[in-house]
Amino acid sequence: QVQLAESGGGLVQAGGSLRLSCAASGRTFSNDNMGWFRQAPGKEREFVAAISWSGGIIMYADSVKGRFTISRDNAKNTLYLQMNSLKLEDTANYYCARRRGVRRWSDPGDYDYWGQGTRVTVSS
């Protein structure tokens, strides 16, 4: 079993920055493709970004492209999401997940393990 734990969420002013971390434990992390998703109350889970196990393939949702950066440190079994120029609409619970599917990077159905989430609130 793979366990994922997000951290780094909090309250931030619009235009500010926040860095999220996802610590993986259990079995292999270095060979796993990973992704970030977010979900606001009453809304569906939304794809944010994804990264291959080697970091050679990176995907971003159009809504965050140019503002967010996904990265990983396999030696530390940790996934990161650097969020800059935050907007009010970025407010959500953010989840990291492991991808094992092959259909689409942005499809939640391609991911089999999920963290509990960390809350990000952007204020004006």
Supply database-style keywords:
124 residues; mainly beta; seven-stranded mixed sheet; four-stranded antiparallel sheet; 11 strands; 0% helix; 51% strand; globular
What features would you describe in this structure?
- The chain has 124 residues and is an all-beta fold.
- 0% of the residues lie in helices and 51% in strands.
- It has no helices and 11 strands.
- Strands 2, 4, 5, 6, 9, 10 and 11 form a 7-stranded mixed beta sheet that branches.
- It is globular.
Determine the strand fraction and express it as a percent band.
over 45%
Assign the structural class, choosing from mainly alpha, mainly beta, alpha/beta, alpha+beta, or little secondary structure. mainly beta
Beta strand count: 11
The Rg value, from CA coordinates, equals 13 Å
**Helices and strands, in N-to-C order?**
EEEEEEEEEEE
Cα(first) to Cα(last) distance is: 40 Å
Q: How would you state the average pLDDT, rounded?
A: 95
Query: Total helix count?
Result: 0
Low-confidence stretches: none
